[in-house]
Amino acid sequence: MENKEQIRNVAIIAHVDHGKTTLVDALLKQSNTFRDNQAEMNQTLIMDSGDQEHERGITITAKQTSVHYNGYKINIIDTPGHIDFTAEVERSLRVLDGAITVFDGKMGVEAQSETVWRQATKYGVPRICFINKINQIGGDFYKSLESIHKRLSKNAVAIHLPIGFEKDICGVVDLVDMKAYTYKEYADHSLTVGEIPADMLDKAKKARAILVEEAVSADEELMNKYFNQGEEAITEAELKAALRKRVLDGDFFLVTGGDGRGVIVEKVLDLCVDYLPSPLDRDLGQTVGTDPKTGDQVIRKADVSQPLTALAFKIASDPFVGKLVFVRVYSGILKSGSYIYNATTGNKERVGRLVRMFADKREEITEVAAGDIAAIVGLKETTTGTTLCDPAHPILLESIEFPEPPVSIAVEPKTKADQEKMGLGLAKLAEEDPTFRVHTDEETGQTIISGMGELHLEIIIDRLKREHNVEANTGAPQVAYRETIRGTAEAQGKHIKQSGGRGQYGDVWIKFEPNEPGKGFEFIDMIKGGVVPQEYRKPVQQGVEETLNGGVIAGYPVVDVKATLYDGSYHDVDSSELAFKLAGSLATREGIKRAKPVLLEPVMKLEVTTPEEFMGDVIGDVNSRRGRIESMEDLQGGAKLITAFAPLANLFGYTSDLRSMSQGRAASSMELAQYEEVPPNVAQEIIEKRNSSK
After folding, report:
1. Residue 358 and residue 421 in one domain
2. Domain check: are 300 and 230 in the same one?
């Protein structure tokens, strides 16, 4: 059983095409993980194992692997860089202890670099930075470091300096031990240790002085020693310990760089081991949850003697073993064949088999101890964010939140025979991907699928064909609008039906008012006395919720509404749960219409990198799409970065339009920023179109 101090759980995060997967492959090769399998070693992209990933040249799903290096076990999750698959990054960072952020040395910080950095900050994940591709034309370690300072954090400090420039890069100066680590070819098997080149000595000394100052600033004793005795008095071990402490605090970042394909990644492995946290370092080696029965706080230590606590962070379908549930074990031991408690559903489940994953390869194991990661075969009810624990000691951990998907399309099978297969296939894909949703439009009977962007849905349709053998026709992309209210209104909902014998009677008064943005629906019971008996209040709430979900002005879900039930009446004989549910629905329809309802639309943050000569065209085009320019700044290599906000409805097909207007030289990325009110003239058009199609 591994020593938890010698485990590292690490995510590789970056903007698309910055070289994450290439780096992971190099880490696998450098650590000799596949020493017994030369065919694996000779693959160019071990981690991007799916056909779609090979064809498109991007990572689509997060992959897990492990490397053993100098007595340490490093669990690595390689995450996608494209914004449409941001959920994969989110759920990985939720369960991992540290991260390596990869940057393209030619581009520096790009749009998705900021997004993944923000996600890592949200979960308090300590990280190191690797500036990749500095050996290529246009690659520049120092300019990229400058862009990190400018756009991400001033507390990013070089721990290594590159030796050489662009194609002449041949290693790094390590500022801790002040040695040069060089290679002749990136594919060398080991680095050569030597003295710092004479022409770099002054530069290295200045950079080391900055590194030492930053290190001692968080340690009073060390700081006094530094001021009284000078930099030379700080030993290498003291410097390493101080830097580690600062990295673990989560707001200080060590930076290295090189050619992520080859031997230089040995220094990245060293940084992982020396400075990123073990399971015992994060949150003092403790995990905090609640007792699902009492709601009391429960604390578990990262120790095998503690009761089992684990979080399911990813679901995947394997063609050979079926459903794989990836889990991070926080305390105790998870054993193959054991029964565990699903604290989210309240049911017991049996662990069929346990497997360790290497990209898409599996290794069967008998147990997983605290601090480690593995996959379970055989669980039926477990979904992403589910807590799994010891049945005798239940605990519920904080789940993982995912954004609502803003893009929808209608999908139907090409043949009737495929109808059932399509339903099963989409259900499996939705189980794997929490940002992918499927529902049936009650009025049209169409199957509607929703995702984070056009690429996301394109991949889903492709997977439906490849993995489930279903050919499908799709409609044009649709925007996932929302409705809300800006005013306050009170409304009566009264349902009376007499038809010989027992009738139906339900009568309620409900006040509707805006809730805080993002807070969703809130139901408040303010009934005094028994004007509406207790057993009928829950049905009232159900009636309100169902009506809000179905929309009032245009059939889109109504969000961020507070509904207060404050009065009503009932009949001793004719009242029923159904009557009050219908009364709640009637009050909602009337109340929302009176409370100044408005339409909301998803607004995307759009970042465009373009040569200066096309900037005028790009800005004009963004303005024509109801967009607003937020900022413009200079980038490396004479390019311009334009940041804008624009409605999703006007951005379909933007990537290809941008390519056309810039002769293929501009690039863009977008992510959901917020929902904003649709201008009245546009809203009227959307409502009329929507209502006429019903």
Report:
1. no
2. no
